[in-house]
Amino acid sequence: MADQSIISALVLGLIEGLTEFLPVSSTAHVLLASHFLGFQSPGNTFAVLIQLGAILAILLVYSRKLLEIAMDIPTSPRARRFVLTVLVAFLPAAVIGALAHDFIKTVLFETPMLICIVLILGGFVLLAVDKMQFKPKYHDVMDYPLSLALKIGFFQCLAMVPGTSRSGATIVGALLMGADKRSAAEFSFFLAMPTMLGAFTLDLYKNRNMLSFDDGAMIAIGFVAAFITAVFVVRSLLDFVSSRGYAAFAYWRIAIGAIGLIALYLGA
């Protein structure tokens, strides 16, 4: 492995971990950074497979709550309903993602200009949503009804276009459907577990014959970097969005998208 490739994998892993649970689109950041760094990955698998680090970060941070839910499932209807709401929210992405996988990876992932434009548009959407005065009806993810979970699941499917942001789409969807800011972000964390694990498994299976030992080593470096940084983000994000909202992320999206468009125009 070349030193440059190792450094690129490390940088991309840090970017993944820092952005996965922010409404800024980690996939867009990783794909754009890969483009400008000249980092190549067979079938663009790197951007998807290093997300496993972010998944493990959620499992670590929420390990106590996940264990409590698991222990309560046999005796608690509330715990069983919560697990069902997460699975119902995951269902639309599971179906559409499996059907559209090849198009997403070979067309959408390969169009940097589209990614930049979607980043900018999503930034303006976040600004608009952040200024809205909501009257939340749902304050605890354990009490989300199945109908709300399904609607959030369809919003999550918007993130199949890189630049949209999975967390951003689910959070905005939850807010529009009556959730408060904190529980919307928390539900996005829980929904990330089956969604990202499903994407990881599908992508690994589809590209299993394309990956070499060096590819695996690069993915491992990115995975570790993503895990470490994602732990920090997950632990701090809920308090941040509860008190400050999403405007900062909106401006960040717009700035990154604009910079990306300028760089592409200049032939970078």
From TrEMBL:
It is an enzyme of class 3 (hydrolase). The chain crosses the membrane at residues 43-62, 82-101, 107-129, 187-205, 217-238, 250-267. Its main location: membrane. Keywords: Antibiotic resistance, Cell membrane, Cell shape, Cell wall biogenesis/degradation, Hydrolase, Membrane, Peptidoglycan synthesis, Transmembrane, Transmembrane helix. GO terms for molecular function: undecaprenyl-diphosphatase activity. It is a multi-pass membrane protein. InterPro entries: UppP (IPR003824). It is found in: Cell membrane. It catalyses: di-trans,octa-cis-undecaprenyl diphosphate + H2O = di-trans,octa-cis-undecaprenyl phosphate + phosphate + H(+). Its EC number is 3.6.1.27. The keyword Cell wall biogenesis/degradation applies. Catalyzes the dephosphorylation of undecaprenyl diphosphate (UPP). Confers resistance to bacitracin. Bacitracin is thought to be involved in the inhibition of peptidoglycan synthesis by sequestering undecaprenyl diphosphate, thereby reducing the pool of lipid carrier available. Belongs to the UppP family. PANTHER family: UNDECAPRENYL-DIPHOSPHATASE (PTHR30622). NCBIfam families: PRK00281.1-2, PRK00281.1-4, undec_PP_bacA. This is Undecaprenyl-diphosphatase. It comes from Rhizobium puerariae.
